[in-house]
Write a structure and sequence with these properties.
The structure holds two protein chains of two kinds. Chain A is an alpha+beta fold. Chain A is 16% helix and 19% strand. In chain A, strand 1 and strand 2 form a beta hairpin. Chain B has one domain: Cytochrome p450, CATH 1.10.630.10. Classes of the chains: A alpha+beta, B alpha+beta. The interface between A and B is medium-sized, with 22 and 22 residues.
Chain lengths: 106, 418
Amino acid sequence: MPRITLIEHNGTEHAVDAKTGDSLMTTAIKNRVPGIDADCGGACSCGTCHVFIDPAWLERVGEPGPFEEPMLDLNPERAANSRLSCQIDISDDLEGLVVRLPEFQF
Amino acid sequence: MEAPVIKHSSRSLVGRDAWTIPLEEIDLAHPGIWQANQFLPFLARLRRDEPVHYCAHSPVGAYWSVTRYQDIMTMEAAPQLFSSEPTIGIVDVLPQFTLPMFIAMDPPKHDEQRKTVQGVVAPNNLKNLEGLIRQRVITILDSLPQGETFNWVDRVSRELTTQMLATLFDFPFEERNKLTYWSDIATAIPGAGLINSYEESFEVLKECLAYFMRLWRERAAKAPGNDLISMLAHGEATKNMPPMEFLGNLVLLIVGGNDTTRNSITGGVLALNEHPQEYQKLRDNPALIPSMVSEIIRWQTPLAYMRRTAKVDTELGGKHIKAGDKILMWYASANRDEAAIDRPDEFLIDRDRVRQHLSFGTGIHRCMGNRLAEMQLRILWEEILQRFHKVEVVGEPVRIYSSFVKGYTELPVRLIAR
C-alpha cells in the first residue's frame, strides 16, 4: 500500500494509500480526488487523466508509452513531466510519489 | 416550418420490425429511421446478432457497421489501420467537392493542424469566455416570450450556438446568421430541402470562403489574437494553408461548433420532459448540472457515427475487412451498449461514470470542442433553473433527415415561471 500524494492545482494536497496493481488514475478516482476525469475509463484514449509527475520521480515513473505519447501530444498543457495517470501502475517502488494535477482536463 | 423530405424509398426501414428483418436488409445509413426516431431497435438488433455488420447494398455503397462500444474503442485506438481519410461521412463526394480538413486527416498532418487551433477551445481560454457566454445566455433567455408557444430550436438552440461561433471567430456579430446558414449547407443532403446538388452547396461554400478570406487578410495583417481566424492566419502549420484547406477547416469548426451543441441543447429539454422524475431531481439539486450535461450528451449523441476506411486487410469482431472498405462506428449504438454502460436505456442525470460515453468519439480525433460544449450546456441550465420551473414541451419534435447529424428543426415549448 504505497502512500502517494496528489496535489490539486489550487494547492490542496491529498495523501492516499494506493493499492498495488491499481493505476494511478484508479487510485485518484477511488479516493475522490477531484481533477481527474478519465472519460475513457482507463483505455489511454481520451487524455483526461493528465498529471504532472514531480521531477524527482520522473525517472522511476518512466516515459509515456507508444499509445500514450500521441494523446499527450495533443494536449495544449503538455509539459516534459506530463503523463496519463491511467498508464501508471502502482507498485511498491512508488512509495512517496508526488504528482500535481493540471487546472483543467481537456 | 417543417423541412420537405425525400420520399422514403423502398430501402427505408421505417415501420419494419427490427427483430425479424433479415440482417442483410439492415441499412443504418438510410436516414429514414433516424428522422422517424425508430433507429434504437435496429442498433440493439445488430449489437446482439451481428455487431460488425456488412451492408452490401445501399444507395451510398457497401459499408460495415460497428455497433459495440468496445469494438469502436479498438478502432479509434488504431488510426494506422482505420484511416480518417478521405472523409468521415458515408458518401464519397467527388474529389473536386471534397474539402480537406483535419478531422479527415491521419497523423502526422492531423496532429499538426489540430494543435494549431485547439488552443482557442482549451479550458484555459474558455475560462476567459465564461462571463461572455453567460451574458449571452441571459440575454437570450430574458427575451423569450412568456405564456406562449415558441420553437426552442430557433429561439435558443440555434441562437446561442451561433452567437458562440461568432465569438470564437470574432465574426461580425450582426452577420452571424451566415454561419448557421453555411453550417446547414455543409451538412445538407442534396434533395432533402436546402440544396439540390453538391455543386449547389459548393457554390454557397465558395461565398463562405471569400468572406473568410477577407477576415483572414485583416487578421493576418494585425498582431496575433485569440480568435480562430487569427490563430489560423498566424499558426506555423496553417498560415500557408491552400484556400480549399482553409475552407475545409472552417467548415469543420463551423459545423463542429454549431450543429452538435445546438442539438444537445434541444435534446436536453426533450429528455427532461420525457423523464419528469429526472427533471425533479435537477430542481431539487442543481449541483447535478455538470453530471446531467454529460448524460444529455450521451442521450442525444449529436453525431450518430464517424466513418473510417480500412487501410489494410484486417479483422474486427471475427469479420474480415478488406483494405478500402468503409466502416461506420455507430456512437449512437455504443452509447446504448449494455456491455459498457449500466442501464443504458435509462436517462439518469446522476449516473455513475457519466462521462464515459462515446458522443465525443475517442482517441486522437476525440472532439476538440468537448469542453466548450459542456460549458455552454452547463451555463444554459444554470440560468434556466434560475428562471423557469419548467421548459415544457407542448408538441412533437421535428427531426432532421440525416443518419449522421442527429438533430431537430423544431421543438415547440412553453415556459412555466418559477
